[in-house]
Design a protein that fits this description.
Shape: globular
Strand content: 5-15%
Number of strands: 15
Mean pLDDT: 89
Number of helices: 41
Strand order of the largest sheet: 8-9-11-10-14-15-13-12
Largest sheet: 8 strands, antiparallel
Distance between the termini: 52 Å
Structural class: alpha+beta
Low-confidence stretches: 348-354
Length: 902
């Protein structure tokens, strides 16, 4: 749809300067001028926003905003000088700097202006600036300003890189045009030519620091559209460096001087236009100045741009996938220009170059520590040579030259299905994965140049793929490469002290290249929508055939992709003391090599999701599942040791340990009150400690014992008391009220009515809580609520944060309750998925108590802001809940309680 240009007519709002009587004094005219300026701004900001909503391009809106402010500032300058005679004071010119100087004004951009004056005209410049600035501030505008002479400009430019950069983008606004011509000659020409190399070095250093601050990856959860990688500042940096290096005024001038091609100019202009349109919408919908796209804003921008949710992806995920794709292109466009400029600055002597040239084969050579190719026709004659380039880069530990990268990008279209199936290209790729060094760097380069997308087209479907939640920090493709790097860290011994078992297993894998391929492809099904594990697994036979893998490797690849979530699911959300479940899992694994590779894949997957996802607690659970399953697989059958013999030996050991202390008869009686399940879940030393705690209670309401595990980052809390209705709900409420996270809980009710509850807990920062005063307070609160002297719900309510401290809107997934009677032979298992909040666990356990259900095991897992809690429950008769009506009642009540505030 074509939209007619917006005509900005100031005469409608401001009087014509010639019509204003010469006798008018500025101070008397100011109120009328301010009202007119406010009406002018209100009218045209609304008009421009309307045009933006109708589909005006980013460039059009930015241009109109710039013209609107130009006319405003020029009008105010004329008004401010109406009763000032230049002859009596001197000369002053008003200059736009920075983004305003470039003509890149977005709705909430600053106006950066400079009042430039001759050496003796300070008073005149200050008078004008005071009048204009106060008007602009009264209009609610953010204004950056300075009052400078030529010497001031040069002095500041020498000391401050930001000032020098802002001056590069200067533009005449109003005032003495002859003085501006003097400014261009004395200031601008000097700024562009002085210390060029130092400016470029400083700008690149500034660029690196900016990326450290705003994120060194394009694929950030809530990217900054201006300062983040692939944002506007990347474009600015490249253009600034080119302007200073070649004394070019703008992109068009850079084409004339041969710095960039016309197609590169169009690419820069398209990139600006794309980012401006998004930034315009971001500014229009924001209540304050910000260039970071928060979750709720991403959803609104997606709707504005016309994205619609589909079976495969939400509208916001489609938008962000496109955004990240464009950001990678922008980063490449900008860095390529900078790299080219830097390359041209290096020595080009034929003698030096010849002496350093090292021929590797008829097609490739190394020159100035970069891999280069003989000619442009090499890839056209044999596209598989692109893979050879990556292999040589890895083997000789040298980067691809800029021209070689460009040739690979330009020839990607040659990699068709025939090329993908050739033995040469696949053997080279697998050799790259087998190597002990440089795998990560090569995969990153393949990804950056989009070679991976062409070589494995299924991988292209997850390129820049977004999952709109707080859990997945990176896009799916980037996460997959990071996961590969986690396995490589294990193989290199980087995690030797931290994860010795995983390190040993990683170096014991028969085919490491197959493992790395499985890790690279484990999430490939996410390009197809839901149930990505099975959809990804279904792709593996095709990919394996194309790569020339044998049948066994193909099946293992399919197995790993299909089950890549299984170990995390079972370890975090299932009872690892359940022998039946362990046997079932071992049957699924079939052989220990599958288990080893899946263990490594699960570790890498969790570590690569984001910095807050992996924890030592999860690692401990994962290791426990691995070791128990490995034990079953290595025995050659699916039977644990005879339970009766094992149980008798354990009981004898407990009696021996406590006979002198408590009396043999007492210990034997105690063991009779404890379930077989409990006695099979703990070793004799642990049971002995539990019994010591039980007897230490005496006539007290409660006895509590703490064991801090600093290495794994949690505290094990053992609590014994008499059973009362809703006891576990009381415990969870007290923990929530004291800011303590429950990771897991095992609840054991003895036949004599005493309860032994064992909890694993930590702080909200996932640290051990070892403050004695805090635990004393917890114990007091527990005694108080168990004795009925306090209301646990009131304790939880008081812990709720005030309304003004609540988090900004975040994507929330639907609350779900799933009930399974097949997982455990003894318990009904309830899986609950909900938005995490203070007191959530208390709310759930209170509801389960009200439903007449007893909790045997609880496992708590939180993915940033999403809780996945699991409860093993029985009815009042100690049986599983099998009636459909009761199951539906449990679901209904839990869902209702989860939607209510505490």
């Amino acid at each position: 749809m074509t939209i007619a240009p917006l005509v900005i007519d100031p005469i409608t709002f401001f009087p014509v300067p010639e019509s204003v009587p010469k006798s008018v004094v500025f101070s008397s005219w100011r109120p009328e001028l301010l009202d007119a300026a406010q009406a002018y701004l209100d009218h045209y900001l609304d008009a421009i926003q309307t045009r933006h909503r109708q589909g005006a391009s980013g460039r059009e809106v930015v241009g109109e905003l710039t013209r609107m402010f130009d006319i405003l500032v020029q009008t105010l300058f004329e008004a401010a000088t109406i009763d000032l005679s230049p002859a009596g004071f001197g000369a002053c010119t008003l200059i736009a700097l920075g983004g305003y100087g470039r003509g890149e004004i977005n709705p909430r951009s600053d106006l950066d202006i400079m009042f430039f004056y001759g050496g003796r005209d300070r008073e005149f410049a200050e008078k004008i600036s005071e009048r204009i600035l106060y008007l602009l501030w009264d209009l609610g505008l953010d204004v950056g300003h300075s009052i400078r002479t030529a010497k001031d400009c040069l002095d500041h430019a020498d000391r401050d890189l930001t000032v020098r950069t802002a001056l590069i983008d200067s533009r005449f606004l109003a005032g003495d045009s002859a003085l501006y011509a003097r400014y261009q000659k004395e200031v601008l020409a000097t700024v562009l030519s002085k210390n060029t190399q130092q400016f470029i070095r400083n700008k690149l250093e500034e660029n690196n620091k900016r990326r450290e601050k705003y994120g060194s990856s394009v694929y950030l959860l809530e990217p900054n559209i201006k300062e983040g990688e692939g944002g506007l500042r990347d474009l600015h940096t490249a253009v600034w460096i080119a302007q200073v290096k070649y004394k070019a005024k703008n992109l068009k001038d850079m084409v004339i001087k041969g710095v960039i091609t016309e197609s590169e100019q169009r690419a820069f202009e398209d990139a600006y236009d794309y980012l401006w349109r998004i930034r315009n919408e971001l500014h229009f919908i924001s209540t304050r100045k910000s260039d970071q796209m928060h979750f709720d804003q991403q959803e609104r921008i997606a709707r504005f741009l016309g994205y619609r949710s589909s079976r495969r992806a939400l509208a916001v995920e489609q938008f962000m996938q496109d955004y990240y794709y464009r950001a990678t292109e922008i980063e490449h466009l900008s860095s390529s220009l900078v790299a080219r400029i830097q390359q041209l600055d290096k020595p080009t002597s034929r003698l030096i170059g010849a002496s350093r040239r090292r021929q590797l084969d008829p097609y490739f050579y190394i020159l100035r520590e970069q891999l280069r190719v003989r000619g442009e026709e090499v890839f056209q004659q044999d596209p598989s040579k692109m893979m050879r380039a990556f292999m040589l880069s890895q083997y000789h530990q040298v980067p691809l030259s800029l021209s070689l990268k460009g040739l690979i990008r330009d020839n990607l279209h040659l990699i068709n299905d025939k090329v993908r199936r050739t033995r040469t290209i696949n053997e080279l790729f697998l050799d790259i994965l087998r190597s002990r060094r440089g795998v990560s760097e090569v995969l990153r380069e393949m990804h950056h140049l989009q070679f991976l997308n062409r070589f494995i087209p299924e991988f292209g479907r997850i390129f820049c793929k977004v999952q709109h939640d707080l859990y997945h920090i990176y896009t799916v493709d980037t996460h997959s490469i990071f996961a590969v790097e986690e396995v490589l860290k294990l193989r290199s011994g980087e995690y030797g002290e931290e994860h010795p078992i995983l390190t040993r297993i990683a170096n014991d894998i028969e085919k490491p290249e197959l493992l790395l391929l499985a890790v690279l492809l484990h999430d490939i099904g996410k390009g197809e929508g839901k149930d990505h594990s099975n959809k990804g697994a279904a792709m593996m036979p095709t990919i394996a055939r194309r790569m020339g893998l044998n049948r066994e490797d193909s099946r293992r690849l399919e197995f790993l992709v299909r089950h890549h979530l299984t170990m995390a699911h079972i370890s975090q959300r299932r009872d690892l003391h359940d022998d039946h479940m362990i046997v079932q899992f071992a049957r699924t694994m079939e052989m220990s090599e599958n288990l080893k590779m899946l263990y490594l894949l699960t570790f890498a997957d969790l570590k690569a999701v984001g910095p807050d996802v992996w924890s030592d607690w999860k690692g401990m659970l994962l290791q426990e599942l691995y070791e128990k399953t490995y034990q079953v697989l290595e025995k050659g059958n699916f039977a644990f040791e005879k339970r009766s013999e094992k149980l008798r030996n354990r009981r004898r050991a407990v009696v021996r340990a406590l006979a002198d202390e408590l009396g043999e008869k007492t210990v034997k009686e105690d063991l009779k009150t404890m379930s077989t399940r409990y006695q099979m879940s703990y070793d004799s030393a642990e049971i002995a400690e539990h019994l010591r705690l039980v007897h230490s209670r005496g006539k007290k309401t409660l006895a509590l014992k703490l064991e801090h595990d600093y290495q794994r980052g949690f505290t094990e809390v053992s609590i014994t008391t008499l059973d009362v209705p809703g006891l576990f709900s009381m415990i969870t409420g007290v923990m929530a009220a004291n800011g303590i996270n429950i990771l897991g809980a095992q609840i054991h009710t003895r036949k004599n009515g005493e309860v032994l509850d064992i909890l694993q807990v930590n702080s909200s920062a996932e640290d051990v809580i070892d403050d004695p005063e805090k635990w004393h307070k917890v114990e007091q609160d527990l005694v108080m609520v168990i004795e009925g002297r306090g209301d646990v719900e009131q304790l939880v309510v008081r812990r709720q944060p005030p309304a003004f401290m609540t988090d900004k809107p975040r994507p929330r997934f639907p609350t779900k309750v799933e009930i399974d009677n097949n997982v455990s032979p003894e318990y009904t298992v309830i899986d609950i998925f909900a938005h995490n909040k203070v007191g959530l666990l208390y709310s759930i356990t209170r509801t389960l108590k009200d439903l007449g259900l007893y909790i045997g095991v609880s496992k708590i897992s939180t993915k940033v802001d999403q809780a996945a809690d699991v409860f093993y429950v029985q009815d009042i008769f100690g049986q599983k809940v099998m009636q459909e009506e009761k199951i539906e009642e449990i679901k209904t009540h839990l869902l209702q309680s989860l939607e209510r505030e505490i």
